[in-house]
Amino acid sequence: MNHSPSEKQIQDAYALAQERYAGLGVATDRAIAALASIALSLHCWQGDDVSGFENRGEALSGGIAATGNYPGKARNAGELRGDLDQAYRLIPGQHRLNLHALYAETNGARVERNALRPEHFAAWSEWAKANHHGLDFNPSLFSHPNAASGFTLASYNKDIRNFWIEHCIACRKIGEAFGRALGTTCITNIWIPDGLKDTPANRRTPRELLRNSLDTILAEKIDPAFNLDAVEGKLFGLGSESYVVGSHEFYLGYAITNRVLLTLDSGHFHPTETIADKLSAVLMFVNEALLHLSRGVRWDSDHVVTFSDDLQAIAQELVRGGYLDRVHIGLDYFDASINRIAAWVIGARNALRALLLALLEPSDQLRLLEVTGDYTARLALLEELKGLPFGAVWDYYCLRQGVPVGMALMNEIKAYEDRELAKR
Ligand code: RNT
Ligand code: ZN
Fold first, then answer.
1. May I ask the CATH architecture of the domain 39-359?
2. Which ligand is nearest to the CA of 246?
């Protein structure tokens, strides 16, 4: 058993931390209140290795891969919702769910993706409503015979293109229905796998086809109070190492021109490239953005989010730039080699911890040092901040939110594993 500190220990440590931060002009209770108002969008697909419930025997495709065979993966929507309930119980705050179209519930009927309708997600919507989760949505343009060529919206084949256009249109309407039912805007994010393993002879035409497909998908205006559209680019995938049609530049241009959201996935750039610096640049020209927090490791863009420098830099940019109301924060990774609920919870808690650390910065003081050109003191203060007792503030926040503090988290994960996952 992992022991968590006593309530008194947590409160005493918090009182000391509060004083310490107050000495720098930082109000810890304000940081905590700000953190509590941030909703992360948890990705449903961590719970079953991006399998979905279509049961057509399709392997995961599209240049993404979930490796590992940790027992207990969710086999149906009921199990997945149960696992999500457990994950949310361990994450402080109130959070959203990011759903993929391949998680439709069709009662055993074979419903093609271009024929999906809100009723196929009724159980998700009811569950979200009952548990106060907003919903976000994604068309699924992979793991399907019509994606077998590696091309979807940018396919040279008109029938294939049309099938996926219809799918994306259907998904926007489902997003709209979610927004209407739940009273919170759904972000529907389009990501496609289209690309080539080896050097293309023609990079231009697929991009033109993709632009035309997107134009058709987005032609119908939907009330932005219910649904907002986002587009997600990528540098390369497995089997699309030499060319990805929907690259970052492609979608940055598309998002600006067409006033849709730009999605930045932190695993979708060159290994040494971080998205932190991109935020203040792209947000000059796009109104809102969606983040897919992830962690790239060598060829994989989807490892569990850790408390890395990269993550901290992203959180700092969101807070320092005042972007929290314009940037929607989602998670996107899939690890099948560890307890899947722990993967959700560890990544989500890390994202929140990074945001808390950023919210605890003495931002006025840092800015003043910068404008006055005192870069020495700026460096000294930034380094000093890394050693301040922010962990005590985090523990106190967890206590107040009624979620486990520290490694006690693992007691709950283990108990759920024994009680529930072991039976699968
Ligand atoms: C893939 C993209 C995309 C997917 C999900 C499943 O590289 O990051 O967001 O991970 O749609
Ligand atoms: Zn992503």
1. Alpha-Beta Barrel (3.20)
2. 1
